[in-house]
C-alpha cells in the first residue's frame, strides 16, 4: 500500500487538482492589477475594522483595474446565523461597497471563480487535501479528544510548547497499512498537514504594511480537513486565494503570526503565495489608555450603528481613510472638493500601529461632508433614513417635498454653507419649527436676554404693526429691525452698545432674538430672514400673535 492508495481510500471521489487549475485559470488583467478579497464569516455582523478592510480592498482593486471579491468563510458552521451572508452584503452596500465578484445576496453570486461560499467548495478542498496525502504531506489522524487532552497535559507538566508536532504528533508516522486498516474499520479521523518546519529556524517575510518580520518556522501538524469534511481557515485560505487568483491578502493583524504556516502550506501545495498586508486593529481611548475597539462594549464597533444613526456613508469612509492613511489629510486639504474616489490609496502607507477611533472627529468630518451636499440630496438621504427609523419624519418629508427642500436649503449651496448637521437622525430636531404639525407641540421658548413678558409683547406688536413686510429684501428687512431697536431704546449696532452700554437697554441682536424665538422657539437658528421667507406671512402673524396672547 502506498500514499496514493491511502489518498484514494480517504477521498475516493475527489477530482484531480489539474481539473481545478484549468477551471480557474490565471486572470488576464492589466499589469499591476490587484485582486483583493474581503472574507468574513457569515455572522451577520460587520465590524468597523472589517469595513475598513473592505474599503481598502475595494479601493485598491478599483485603482488598479483589478478585481474585488466578497467570499464568505462559513466553515465554522457553529458561528453561522440565519441570513448572515445577506446581512453582510447589505452592510457593505450601505457604504457603497459592491464586489466585482462573489456573494451578492444570501445565495446569489457572480463571477467564474466561485463558488464563493466555502461550504460549497468542499470538493475542491478535498481534492487538494488528497494531493497532499498522495505526496506524503498530509495524513489521517485518529486522535480522540481524550488523547489530545492527554498530550496537552503531558506538555504542560513538562513545561514544553503545546501542540501537535514532532514526537507529539501521534499519528504522523503511523504505517500506511495501519491507517488504512483503521479507516476500513470505520474509525473517526481528521486530516492533518505534515509539517517539515523546524522551530529553531527563522523565516523572514516582508509584509506590505508591517515591513520585515521574522518568525520561527511552523512545525505544527495542523488540521486541514475537519471531521465534518470541511477545511480549517488556514487550508481554505491557501486553496481559495490560490484558485481565485488573489494577488493581495489584506487582513487583520491577528493573522500575522500564521504567516510561517501559510507560507509553508502554499509551498507544499505548489502555489505561489500572495502578497500580504496585515492591518492594525482600530483602537479606542479608554480611561487614559488604549484598547481594541470591542464588539461587546462599543456600539460603534458594528457598522449597523452608523446606518441606524444616519451617519452618511461618505463620512464614515472619509473618516476611516483619514485615520488609516497619513496621506489622506494633506490630500484632503489640497483638494477640498474632490470626490473621495479620486484619492489614491497607498497600501504601504497604512498605519502600522492601531489608529484610535474618535467619534467626535467622525461627526466633525460628517458635518463637513453634509455641508457640501445639495438640499435635494439631504432630503433624499434623510427620507431614506426616516423610512426605516422615524415614521413621523418620513410622513412630514413625503407630504412636503418641495417645501422641505427649501427648508433644507437655508444657508446652503453658498461659499460658507451651514455645518450644523452631522447625521440624519439630527435633521428632525434641526428643522422641526418649520412644520406646524410638530412645532405646535413645542411650548418651550428659549428667550435669552429679554425675558420680560411685557417687553416681548411690545417688541412683537410693534414689529407686526409697523415694520414687518414679507416683500422686503434682506437689507430693508434688516434696516427695519434696526429701526425697531432704536424706537424701543436699543442700540442699532452692537458696536454702539458696547461703547456706551449704559445708554441702551440692549442692542439690535437682542431684538432680533425675540423675533427669532417667537417664530422658532429657539435662540439659535440659521438665517432668520430665510426662515421668515419660507414660513410666509400668515404663519409669521399667527405665531407672533399666539405668543402675544
Ligand atoms: N474569515 C477570516 C476572518 O474573518 C478572514 C481572514 C482573511 O481575510 O483571510 O478573520
Task: Please name the fourth-level CATH homologous superfamily of the largest domain.
Answer: HUPs
Count up the helices.
Answer: 23
Largest sheet: 4 strands, mixed
> How do the strands line up in the largest sheet?
1-2-3-4
Query: Percentage of helical residues?
Result: 40-55%
What distance lies between the first and last C-alpha atoms, to the nearest angstrom?
103 Å
Q: Low-confidence parts, pLDDT < 50 over ≥5 residues? A: none
Q: What overall geometry do the principal axes of the alpha carbons give?
A: elongated
Number of E-state strands: 14
Structural class: alpha/beta
Provide the gyration radius in Å: 33 Å
The CATH class of the largest domain is identified as Alpha Beta
Q: Taking all residues together, what is the mean pLDDT?
A: 94
Number of domains: 4
Question: Which percent band covers the strand fraction?
Answer: 5-15%
Describe this structure in words.
The longest helix is centred in the last third of the chain and has 21 residues, at 528-548. The chain is of the alpha/beta class and 549 residues long. The strands form 5 sheets. The protein has a 4-stranded mixed sheet. Helix 11 crosses helix 13 and helix 14 (375-389) runs antiparallel to helix 15 (391-399). The chain has helices at 3-10, 17-23, 48-63, 84-93, 122-134, 145-157, 176-184, 233-243, 259-269, 304-309, 313-324, 328-334, 359-371, 375-389, 391-399, 401-408, 427-431, 436-439, 453-467, 474-487, 494-499, 508-520, 528-548, and strands spanning 35-38, 67-70, 101-103, 109-110, 138-141, 190-193, 202-207, 211-216, 223-225, 248-252, 275-279, 283-286, 289-292, 356-357. Helix content is 45%, strand content 10%. It binds glutamic acid. Residues 39-41, 73, 237, 249, 251 line the site of glutamic acid.
Amino acid at each position: 500500500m502506498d500514499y496514493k492508495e491511502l489518498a484514494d481510500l480517504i477521498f475516493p471521489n475527489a477530482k484531480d487538482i489539474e481539473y481545478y487549475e484549468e477551471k480557474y485559470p490565471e486572470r488576464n488583467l492589466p499589469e499591476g492589477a490587484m485582486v483583493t478579497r474581503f472574507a468574513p464569516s457569515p455572522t451577520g455582523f460587520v465590524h468597523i475594522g472589517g469595513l475598513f478592510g473592505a474599503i481598502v480592498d475595494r479601493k485598491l482593486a478599483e485603482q488598479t483595474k483589478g478585481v474585488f471579491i466578497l467570499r464568505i468563510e462559513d466553515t465554522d458552521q457553529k458561528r453561522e446565523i440565519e441570513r448572515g451572508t445577506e446581512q453582510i452584503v447589505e452592510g457593505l452596500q450601505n457604504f457603497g461597497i459592491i464586489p466585482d465578484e462573489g456573494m451578492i445576496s444570501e445565495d446569489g453570486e457572480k463571477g467564474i471563480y466561485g463558488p464563493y461560499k466555502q461550504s460549497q467548495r468542499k470538493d475542491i478542498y478535498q481534492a487538494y487535501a488528497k494531493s497532499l496525502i498522495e505526496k506524503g504531506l498530509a495524513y489521517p489522524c485518529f486522535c480522540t479528544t481524550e488523547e489530545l487532552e492527554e498530550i496537552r497535559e503531558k506538555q504542560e507538566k513538562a513545561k514544553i510548547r503545546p501542540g501537535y508536532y514532532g514526537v507529539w504528533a501521534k499519528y504522523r508516522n503511523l504505517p500506511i497499512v495501519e491507517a488504512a486498516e483503521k479507516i476500513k474499520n470505520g474509525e473517526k479521523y481528521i486530516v492533518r498537514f505534515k509539517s517539515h518546519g523546524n522551530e529553531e529556524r527563522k523565516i523572514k517575510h516582508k509584509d506590505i504594511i508591517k515591513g520585515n518580520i521574522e518568525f520561527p518556522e511552523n512545525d505544527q501538524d495542523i488540521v486541514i480537513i475537519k471531521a465534518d469534511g470541511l477545511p480549517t481557515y488556514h487550508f481554505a485560505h491557501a486553496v481559495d486565494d490560490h484558485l481565485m487568483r488573489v494577488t493581495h491578502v489584506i487582513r487583520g493583524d491577528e493573522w500575522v503570526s500564521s504567516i510561517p504556516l501559510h507560507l509553508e502550506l502554499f509551498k507544499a501545495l505548489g502555489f505561489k503565495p500572495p502578497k500580504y498586508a496585515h492591518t492594525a486593529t482600530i483602537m479606542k481611548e479608554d480611561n487614559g489608555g488604549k484598547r481594541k475597539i470591542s464588539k461587546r462594549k462599543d456600539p460603534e464597533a458594528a457598522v449597523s450603528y452608523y446606518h441606524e444613526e444616519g451617519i452618511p456613508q461618505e463620512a464614515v469612509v472619509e473618516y476611516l481613510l483619514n485615520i488609516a492613511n497619513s496621506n489622506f489629510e494633506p490630500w484632503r486639504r489640497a483638494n477640498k472638493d474632490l470626490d473621495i474616489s479620486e484619492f489614491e490609496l497607498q497600501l504601504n502607507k497604512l498605519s502600522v500601529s492601531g489608529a484610535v477611533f474618535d467619534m467626535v472627529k467622525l461627526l466633525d468630518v460628517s458635518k463637513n461632508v453634509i455641508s457640501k451636499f445639495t438640499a435635494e440630496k439631504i432630503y433624499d438621504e434623510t427620507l431614506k433614513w426616516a423610512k426605516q427609523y422615524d415614521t413621523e419624519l418620513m410622513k412630514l418629508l413625503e407630504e412636503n417635498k418641495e417645501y422641505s427642500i427649501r427648508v433644507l436649503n437655508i444657508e446652503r449651496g453658498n461659499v460658507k454653507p451651514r455645518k450644523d448637521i452631522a447625521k440624519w437622525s439630527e435633521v428632525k430636531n434641526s428643522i422641526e419649527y418649520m412644520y406646524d404639525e410638530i412645532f405646535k407641540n413645542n411650548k418651550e421658548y428659549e428667550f435669552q436676554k429679554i425675558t420680560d413678558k411685557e417687553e416681548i409683547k411690545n417688541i412683537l406688536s410693534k414689529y407686526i404693526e409697523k415694520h414687518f413686510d414679507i416683500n422686503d429684501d434682506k437689507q430693508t428687512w434688516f434696516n427695519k429691525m434696526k429701526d425697531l431697536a432704536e424706537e424701543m431704546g436699543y442700540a442699532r449696532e452692537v458696536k454702539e452698545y458696547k461703547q456706551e452700554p449704559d445708554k441702551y437697554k440692549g442692542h439690535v441682536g437682542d431684538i432680533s432674538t425675540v423675533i427669532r424665538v417667537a417664530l422658532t422657539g429657539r435662540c439659535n437658528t440659521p438665517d432668520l430672514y430665510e426662515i421668515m421667507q419660507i414660513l410666509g406671512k400668515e404663519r409669521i402673524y399667527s405665531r407672533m400673535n399666539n405668543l402675544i396672547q
